[in-house]
Amino acid sequence: MPRRPPKKPDPALDLSTHLVALGNLTDLFDPATLFPRPAPIELEVGSGKGLFLDTASAARPERNFLGVEIAAGYARLCAARLARRAAANARIIHGDATWLVRGLLPDACLDAIHVYFPDPWWKARHRKRRVLSPTFLRHAGRVLPPGGVVHVWTDVEEYFLESLEVSRATGLFAEPAAVEPRPAEHDLDYRTHFERRTRLAGAPVWRALLTRNDRPASVVRGSGDEADSAGVPARRREAPG
Ligand SMILES: C[S@@+](CC[C@H](N)C(=O)[O-])C[C@H]1O[C@@H](n2cnc3c(N)ncnc32)[C@H](O)[C@@H]1O
Question: So what's the pLDDT on residue 236?
Fold first, then answer.
């Protein structure tokens, strides 16, 4: 589906607390330093317009929520939603999730990872850009402690089945559990904008929960394909914040 460019946030809004540029993070980055209160951290990969980040952080103030979004306009839009209500427990990083998870996050620093409607990259020559790659899922296993979870929701059955296979191949997750949909109680009662759009169009959504087992992850921070999923070093794909 074609995407309209995101609306520009009110220029009077100060985004500096909520918007973080990936390029400004150090190699010893600890995500807990972004939040005023210590709490379990949940990462959302590809936050888009920020519905999940906004609603989840408002509903669960006892947890910290961190989004990572590669498109500058969407990252700013998410930051604006969070800044408008001065959310203390939510932040958005502008940059590439693959690099963040593979290269910067310390071991066992997250409680959950949410991947909702990741770009499917249909063309064969673009497939390597898919976020749910073997490298990403091995590092997801590294940054989650035993019992930590990855939520995977998509409207693309083939990508869904492929990511479950990749997850099994890592050996770091229990057998994927199916997640049942819940009826929406109001117009914005959806996990994300793409879930809303897909369900209102009557199309199916595939959902799974991957739970980290207690096998040690055999990867170290920063390891993996040097040419990342896009075929260029991930560091270079960061746009400035
Ligand atoms: C199809 S949209 C889904 C947005 C949102 N998750 C939803 O369900 O409404 C995919 C989003 O992921 C972002 N994205 C794609 N590749 C990314 C990457 N490597 N790192 C961070 N964000 C990425 C895109 O810019 C886009 O906003």
Answer: 38
Confidence of residue 3 (pLDDT cuts 50, 70, 90): low
Please state the domain count of the chain: 1
What does the alpha-carbon distance between residue 107 and residue 93 come to, in Å, rounded to a whole number?
A: 19
Q: Which residues are catalytic?
A: 119
The closest of 7, 191, 20 to 93, measured between CA atoms, is 20
Regarding the beta carbon of 74 and ligand 1, being less than 6 Å apart is answered yes
Distance from residue 118's CA to the centre of ligand 1 (Å): 5
Q: Is the sign of the CA dihedral 194, 130, 77, 148 positive or negative?
A: positive
9 belongs to a structural domain: no
| Structural domain includes residue 11 | no
The span from the CA of 69 to the CA of 159, in Å, is 20
Query: In this structure, which residue's CA is closest to atom 24 in ligand 1?
Result: 46
In a domain, 1, yes or no: no
Averaged pLDDT, 20-34: 94
75 lies in which domain range?
Answer: 19-237
Whether residue 208 has its Cβ less than 6 Å from ligand 1: no
What is the per-residue pLDDT across 161-193, written as a single tens digit (0 to 9) for each? Answer: 999 999 999 999 999 999 999 999 999 999 999
Specify the CATH number for the domain of residue 102: 3.40.50.150
Instruction: Give the atom of ligand 1 at the shortest distance from the alpha carbon of 51.
Output: 9
145 assigned to some structural domain: yes
